[in-house]
């Protein structure tokens, strides 16, 4: 037996030992996470918040990789994730048995709703999305049978077979749904809970578009301030300036720029600096 072979045999790790070692490392990491969360819970300062969000970076990156979407702004998605993460940290209860990062990872999935909303260019209600899927399938089947696009009455007759009266669609309703969609084929995943958004929803939509606008313009300082205000919930100009190491006047100027971008998008008069 050569010396190299003997050395390999000596250094060969037992699978059970490796599993136990990995489990111990995980326990140590979870304990550190718990201590970090306790410190943040007792003193939710911008510094402690920044430490928590830095620790969550792998969770954010993993979520971004899993839920990439063509119409979603990456900076806006990051803000939504941070907002959801902080909400999860607020509600975390260590007595329930879950580790802090596991709890956040589970709750941050709600940010996927933001992706769905961004894809819903037609602003279709969730109820009508189910109808659209059925209408599309019936439309395709009837077109193959008839050799022409079916009428709304023919679609209604096809769709209402075996359906209780209270759930049946009239020809007029089918026409309204198709007009709302603006086209015949709409993905069944493209929906929003409310087809006519309230003012608060519109505000959120406008704000979600700003990070992408600033990123395209190369305004990294604006993204940092938006992250503090909307991602970490830090509103105080002095606290933001201290955290970023800037003057308060600089932060104030950038916050005014952000507000003016928002006002411009909403068609409102701009503020002076």
What's this, in brief?
Helices cover 68% and strands 0% of the residues. It has 273 residues and is mostly helical.
Major pleated sheet? none
What gyration radius follows from the Cα positions, in whole Å?
26 Å
Summed up, the helix count is 14
Give start-end ranges of low-pLDDT stretches: 183-200
Q: Termini, distance in Å? A: 80 Å
> How many domains, in number, for the residues?
3
**H/E order of the elements?**
HHHHHHHHHHHHHH
Note the quaternary state here: single chain
What is the 3D shape? flat
Q: In total, how many beta strands?
A: 0
Mean pLDDT: 77
> DSSP strand (E) fraction?
under 5%
Structural class based on helices, strands and sheet pairing: mainly alpha
Q: What percent of the residues sit in helical stretches (DSSP H or I)?
A: 55-70%
What are the SSEs and their pairings?
Elements: H1 3-11, H2 15-42, H3 46-55, H4 57-66, H5 74-91, H6 100-107, H7 112-119, H8 126-146, H9 152-159, H10 171-181, H11 199-216, H12 220-231, H13 237-244, H14 248-265
Helix pairs in contact: 2-3, 5-6, 5-11, 5-12, 8-9, 9-10, 12-14, 13-14
Describe the structure.
The chain has 273 residues and is mostly helical. The chain folds into three domains: 32-119; 126-181; 199-265, Arc Repressor Mutant, subunit A. Helix content is 68%, strand content 0%. It has 14 helices and no strands. It has helices spanning 3-11, 15-42, 46-55, 57-66, 74-91, 100-107, 112-119, 126-146, 152-159, 171-181, 199-216, 220-231, 237-244, 248-265. Helix 5 (74-91) runs parallel beside helix 12 and helix 9 (152-159) crosses helix 10.
